[in-house]
Amino acid sequence: TFALDQLVRDGDLTVKQRNELLVEMTDEVADLVLEHNRAQTLALMIARRQALPMINVHARYLDALEADGRLDRALEALPNDRQINERQSAGSGLRAPEFAVMIAYSKNADVEEVLASDVPDDPVLDDDLLHSFPTPLRTRFPDIIRGHRLRREIVATRLVNNMVNLAGISFDHRMIEDTGASIADVTRAFVASRNIFGFREMWREIDSLSGIELDTQLELFLDARRLAERGTMWLLRHRRPPLDIGATIDTFAASIAELDSALDHVVSGHVANAIADARDGRTAAGVSADLAARSARWPWMHTGFDIVELAESEQTPLADTATTYWAVFESFDLEWLWDGIGGLPRSTRWQAQARGALRDDLMSVLAELARLVMRSDHDSVARWIGSNERAVGRVISMHTEIRRAETADLTTLSVAVRQLRNLTLGAAL
User: Fold this and answer.
1) Could you tell me which of 220, 159, 244 has the C-alpha nearest to residue 194?
2) CA atoms of 121 and 236, how far apart (whole Å)
3) How far, in Å, CA of 404 to CA of 48, rounded?
4) What percent of the chain has pLDDT over 90?
5) CA-to-CA distance for 263 and 266, rounded, in angstroms?
6) C-alpha angle 222-241-306 in degrees, rounded to nearest 5
7) Which residues of the chain have pLDDT under 70?
8) Residue 30 CB: number of other CB atoms within 10 A?
9) CA 60 – CA 170 distance, rounded (Å)
10) CA 412 to mean position of chain CA atoms
11) HSE on the CB side for 419, CA within 13 Å?
12) Which residues contact 246 (CB under 8 A, 6 or more apart)?
């Protein structure tokens, strides 16, 4: 009501008009509150579904909150490390009421950190501010909203709610563990990734689905979440803080949208088959053809950051760059390496960091190999491989030996990626 009272004081509304506007907005205000409550309930449900596979992450997050003096486990009746270990042995994790406590502490901590930074002042978040208010107020009086005395608090609260509800209760903790970034830096990267991929729009579209199994819907939520998470991670690892949110969105959003539309036409082999299988499976599960096709591409779209940077640095058309990038992937038969890294354990903090770093290394090597091909005089990856037959042969031979092992682990997969890295250093143009 502060904004409306200010309009009355400024003479823009009479008291009668103020009261009429309040009545007009009543239903939408209720909808805004219910929308947040529903989003938080959904976040809790997804967390509960992931309670066992994510139990070690949740345990570490509880430890971190307690170590920072933000949480008293005994006071909140949360399990200690011994009790968590017992639950894990019994095949269970944290419970819904415990996640409810965690999400409250997580949001409070994040809002405090965001308010202590300049994140709420970023012009990119103007939309987040305006959409905290009902439509009549934000369309007729946007400037009074922008001048609200609690503007920063409103922005920080809405942004943190959005981040935690969509990306997950432990999202910020995992980003900090993997990169050492601050909450403010994680939030900046999340906003950029969110806007680049249209994460909020994806989430709303999935949330509005009806007539499909809950497991299918949750799978879609998690795939959308992983895409936004991988985008956030890429930005944290490849951009010096503090991230310029607006410039980053301007750099990547249109190009990644173009890559999304072109992906089906530039991939082949394993990637094409994986996308087709995911699309057909979701169509059969009752997902609309359009959403099934788009969601099938989500597991691969985080590569777009490297492809966009490569196209810009080499001054090559985006579609041609993407074609070369994925041709390298297929020509070197890297499906086994990609999947092997994805299958590495991540129960401990160090396993998760090693897995993420190795995936990042593989993507970097892919981009560098594509760069070598584009700079060469050869018109295809196959011809480039032919001109570097001896060096490539050594890599393929080593990879074949590694693949013959019964299981792939961090050591062998690291060697495989290193062999590719050596190729980028020693191959001829």
Assistant:
1) 159
2) 20
3) 38
4) 81
5) 5
6) 55
7) 1-2, 426-429
8) 11
9) 9
10) 28
11) 21
12) 122, 123, 124
Distances (CA, A) of 171 to 3, 54, 163, 176, 396: 34, 11, 8, 9, 37
Under 8 Å between Cβ of 370 and 329:
no
Whole-angstrom distance, CA of residue 419 vs CA of residue 361: 12
With a pLDDT cut of 70, the percent of the chain lying above it is 99
Rounded (5°) CA angle 50-358-191: 60
Sign of the alpha-carbon torsion through 298, 302, 306, 308: positive
Q: Assess contact for 372 and 385: CB atoms under 8 A.
A: no
pLDDT in tens, 60-112: 999 999 999 999 999 999 999 999 999 999 999 999 999 999 999 999 999 99
Residues near 261 by Cβ (< 8 Å), separated by ≥ 6?
none
Residue that the structure tokens 């005395």 belong to: 149
Query: Distance between CA atoms of 234 and 236, rounded to whole angstroms?
Result: 5
Token pair belonging to 2: 């502060």
State the DSSP string of 282-341.
HHHTT--HHHHHHHHHGGGGGGHHHHHHHHHHHT--HHHHHHHHHHHHHHTTTHHHHHHH
- CA–chain centroid gap for 13, Å, is 43
DSSP class of residue 119 equals G
What is d(CA 12, CA 79) in angstroms, rounded to the nearest whole number?
55
Q: Which amino acid is at 21?
A: L
User: Per the structure block, which two tokens stand in for 218?
Assistant: 């949750």
Which pLDDT tens digit goes with each residue over 193-205?
999 999 999 999 9
